[in-house]
Design a protein that fits this description.
nine-stranded mixed beta sheet, globular, 24% strand, D-Amino Acid Oxidase, Chain A, domain 2, FAD/NAD(P)-binding domain, alpha/beta, binds flavin-adenine dinucleotide, 32% helix, 428 residues
Length: 428
C-alpha cells in the first residue's frame, strides 16, 4: 500500500515516519527543498505537554480589551479585515467560554500526553539529538489574579494526572536562576515538571534521515496545485512537476491545507495566525533561561536551545502576508530583556523569523477521516504543533491502517465542524 503525505513540516514528517513503521510505502511531497522549512522551522521550541491550552479562553475578550487600551497587545489585526479573518475571530470568540475551554483543553491534553509518550518511546529506539532539555517549563504570574485564573487549568491537569508545582517568586528563581534580577516583580509561577524543550527543525531533520533509511521518498521543490477526485475518492495529486498517485493520501500542509481542500468541498477552519521569533546567542549561562518560560500575560515564550535563546510570540491576523514586522522584533527583544536582562549577547546577528500557526478556533488539531474514503487529514495544530506532533503522526498512521487507536478520537476529526463537509458524502 502506498501513501502520499502532502507537506513535510513536523506533522508531515512524523506522519511519514509512523506510516513507514506500519509498513506502508510512503512518499512525502513539499514545495521546499528540505523538511520543516516553513512554520516548523523556528518556533519557540516548547514541548509544552502540560501547558497545552486553547487560545480561546473565557478571559480572552477582556484581555484583548485591556491590551488594546494600554497599547501593548500581543494580538495585531490587519485593519483591512478579510472575510476569512472575521470568520476565524467569530468562531474563536464562540469558544471563549468555560465549557468550551474545558472541552478543548481536555482534547489538546489527550493528544499532548500521547505525544510525550511517543517521543519517549522514539528516543528509546533511536539515537536522536535535537538540543533537547528535560527540565520542565514555567508559567509566570505577575499578580494573584493570574494565579487565580490558572486554577481552572489545575482542575483539568489533575483530571489528567499531570504533575505541576505552584511556586512563589523564590521558587521561580530556584527553577530559573536568570530571573533573579526581576524577582520583586514576579508573583509566582506554575511549574510543569515533566515538560520538555527542543529544536523542532533539528528534530524534523533527524527524523527525515531515519525516514530515508526506512525507504520513505521525499519529493522536494514540488508545488501541489490541486487534488483530483474520481468516484468519490482521490485519484491523484496535481503538482507543477506532474501527477502523483497513491492508494491513500494525507494532508499536512499546515496553514495552506484549506487552500487545497476547499476546491474538493472540504471547508476546514484553519487560519494562518502569524507569529514571530528571534534567536540570539547566550551571553551568560547562569543568567540565561535553562528551559522554557511562558509569560502568558504578554503571550511570549522563551526557550533555551543549546547556546541560543529563542523568544517567540505575537498573534498577527493578516491572512497570508509573510512580511517581517519590525515592531515584532522590538517587542520580542523587550520581552526577553524584561525577564532575563543579562541573558543574551548584544549583537546585530539576531535571527528574525515569521511563521503561520495553522490555527483552528478550538485550538484542537484536525486528524482523521474525510468524506473521501482514501483521504485523511493531519493539520490545524496551531500554537502547539511541535508538542502534539508525535501523537498526531502515530494517530494518523493507525487511522490510515484501520487499527484501533491508543487514545480516543472523540472531537478530533473534521466531523466536529458541522459546516466543513460540502461534498454530500458520508464519512469513511
Ligand atoms: C512563532 C511561533 C512559535 C511557535 N512555538 C511553538 C512551540 O513552542 N511549541 C509547539 O509545539 N508549537 C509551536 N508553534 C506551532 C508549530 O510550529 C506549528 O503548529 C507546526 O509547525 C505546524 O506544523 P505543520 O507541519 O502542520 O506545518 P508546516 O511546518 O508549515 O508544514 C507544512 C508544509 O506544507 C508545505 N506546503 C504548503 N503548501 C504547499 C503546496 N501547495 N505545495 C507543496 N508544499 C506545500 C510547506 O512547504 C510546509 O513544509 C509555534 C508557531 C509559531 C509561528
Amino acid at each position: 500500500m502506498n501513501v502520499l503525505v502532502l507537506g513535510a513540516g513536523i506533522i508531515g514528517t512524523t506522519s511519514a515516519y509512523f506510516l513507514a513503521k506500519q509498513g506502508y510505502k510512503v512518499t512525502v511531497v513539499d514545495r521546499q527543498d528540505s523538511v520543516a522549512m516553513e512554520t516548523s522551522h523556528a518556533n519557540a521550541g516548547q514541548l509544552s505537554y502540560a501547558f497545552s491550552s486553547p487560545w480561546a479562553s473565557p478571559s480572552l475578550p477582556l484581555s484583548l480589551l485591556k491590551w488594546n487600551l494600554n497599547g501593548t497587545s500581543p494580538l495585531v489585526v490587519n485593519p483591512k479585515l478579510s472575510l476569512n479573518t472575521i470568520k476565524f475571530m467569530y468562531r474563536t470568540y464562540k469558544n471563549c467560554n468555560s465549557n468550551s475551554y474545558e472541552i478543548n483543553k481536555s482534547r489538546m491534553l489527550r493528544i499532548a500526553n500521547y505525544s510525550q509518550k511517543n517521543l519517549i518511546d522514539l528516543e528509546s529506539e533511536l539515537d536522536i539529538n535535537y538540543e533537547q532539555r528535560k527540565q520542565g517549563s514555567l508559567q509566570l504570574f505577575w499578580s494573584p489574579k493570574e494565579l487565580e485564573k490558572a486554577k481552572q487549568d489545575m482542575v483539568i491537569l489533575k483530571k489528567f494526572n499531570i504533575q505541576y508545582e505552584v511556586l512563589d517568586a523564590d521558587g521561580c528563581v530556584d527553577a530559573e536562576p536568570g530571573l533573579q534580577y526581576i524577582k520583586n516583580k514576579i508573583y509566582g509561577g506554575l511549574r510543569f515538571i515533566n515538560d520538555f524543550t527542543g529544536n523542532c527543525y533539528l528534530f524534523s531533520s533527524e527524523l527525515y534521515k531515519k525516514c530515508l533509511e526506512m525507504g520513505v521518498k521525499f519529493e522536494f521543490n514540488t508545488h501541489i496545485e490541486s487534488i483530483s477526485i474520481a468516484n468519490n475518492k482521490v485519484s491523484a495529486v496535481k503538482t507543477d512537476r506532474g501527477e502523483l498517485t497513491a492508494d491513500s493520501y494525507s494532508v499536512s500542509l499546515g496553514s495552506y491545507s484549506p487552500r487545497v481542500l476547499s476546491d474538493i468541498g472540504i471547508d476546514i477552519p484553519v487560519y494562518p495566525v502569524k507569529g514571530y521569533s528571534i534567536t540570539l546567542p547566550v551571553l551568560s549561562d547562569l543568567d540565561a533561561p535553562q528551559s522554557t518560560i511562558m509569560d502568558d500575560k504578554n503571550k511570549i515564550g522563551i526557550t533555551r536551545l543549546g547556546d541560543f535563546i529563542r523568544v517567540a510570540g505575537i498573534a498577527h491576523l493578516t491572512d497570508y502576508n509573510s512580511n517581517l514586522r519590525e515592531k515584532a522584533l522590538h517587542s520580542l527583544k523587550e520581552g526577553l530583556d524584561n525577564l532575563f536582562p543579562h541573558a543574551a549577547k548584544e549583537t546585530d546577528d539576531v535571527k528574525f523569523w515569521t511563521g503561520f500557526r495553522p490555527s483552528t478556533p478550538d485550538s484542537t488539531p484536525i486528524i482523521g477521516a474525510t468524506p473521501y474514503s482514501n483521504l485523511y487529514l493531519n493539520t490545524g495544530h496551531g500554537t502547539l504543533g511541535w508538542t502534539m506532533s508525535l501523537g498526531s503522526g502515530k494517530l494518523l498512521a493507525n487511522i490510515v491502517a484501520g487499527n484501533e487507536t491508543e487514545i480516543s478520537l472523540e472531537g478530533i476529526a473534521m466531523s466536529r465542524y458541522k459546516y466543513s463537509n460540502k461534498t454530500n458524502l458520508n464519512y469513511g
